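REQUEST ID: PR-0412
SUBMITTED BY: lab tech R.K.
PRIORITY: routine
TASK: structure prediction, single protein chain
INPUT:
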Amino acid sequence: FKRTWGENDEYFFHARLRNEAGANGNSGSGAYMDRFYVQMPFYFDSRFTIGRQIWSEEGAYKISLPATGGWTGDQVITDWATTAFMWTKNFALGNAKIAVAHPNRNQIYGSDWMLYLGGNVQFNEKFGFDIGGQLFMGDNAEQFGTGAGGNVVAVNGQKKHQHGDVSFNNLWTVFAGLHFDFTDAIGVKGIFYHQAGDSEIVDPVENKWNDYGLGAYDDKGEVIEDANHWAAIIDVKQDFLKYTSLWLEYGAFDQGFWSSNGDGAIFYSGSDVVKGKYLNGASAAYDITYFRVGLGQQWTDKFATYIAYYGYTVKDYVEGDKKDDKNPSELSLGVQYQLNDATTMGLNYMMVNGDFDGNDDDPDKDNVIRFRTAISF
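STATUS: complete
OUTPUT:
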């Protein structure tokens, strides 16, 4: 539901009704408002938005293909709905954004508030950069029993907390992205993220808090305090190649790097099987390097296709007493058809090679098919 009003339509209201079990921490089925916000003019020619909203800051660094219902990947720290106060201001060379939010979901246990600062500067038609920072604030380990598994058990006749009792203090992520267009059809891009976390976990024997950093351990059993992610991209439009666009991307995720927008930021596929093997929820369970190739073809105003291949190297994957690199991959195909001005349909297929059984000679595969119809009215 959308509505604009005011002398120059300067006020805007948006609500989206959804019915889905388990979405965003909703434990039962039923209808709820996935979006519900009002945007209005504010002081100094700025804008102010209040309510459950979504904002996107990293879209220029993600594959863009004609893919209604396809797998082109989540953004790393933005593009998810949260209840927030948002202030935005446009300048001659770009814009700035500040948001204070209550996450209202279970992606970080114990997260009370979130602060986001970001913006972009476009120096000219060819060169610009984007920056952003996101801070989640937690409970600062004020007492035991604040996290998952916080049960009191008897150990040698004394009350102890089970291992796994976690207190989340804070997690912050900053990013900087650069993009340069040689022509209207050929450009290069690069983006870098740095992340650090502070959390603690209860030692069940000594009954005290110990440092837990980002909530993961490296191969030597040391706490992971920080992690990075980066990507380098070549983006060629169809105008130059005539028959197809071309996206070439190479990047890496450090072990422990966590995405607030879910596991689709690391593995693009709709397959939870491969994600469950190489990820811890929405964070990388190992050091991961990857490359992505995307080809999109807009044949007519109504008809488009795409093909994409994503290859990964998971470093030092542990299986039993063996440690070895693994190379999962994702191949996807899609076709999109615009039935009329209001209706677009997409049929997409992905084959995931995850080497699920550990046998390199006979790797398992997972096949995912998705059909989606998008209607605007």
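NOTES: The chain has a mean pLDDT of 85.
REVIEWED BY: pending
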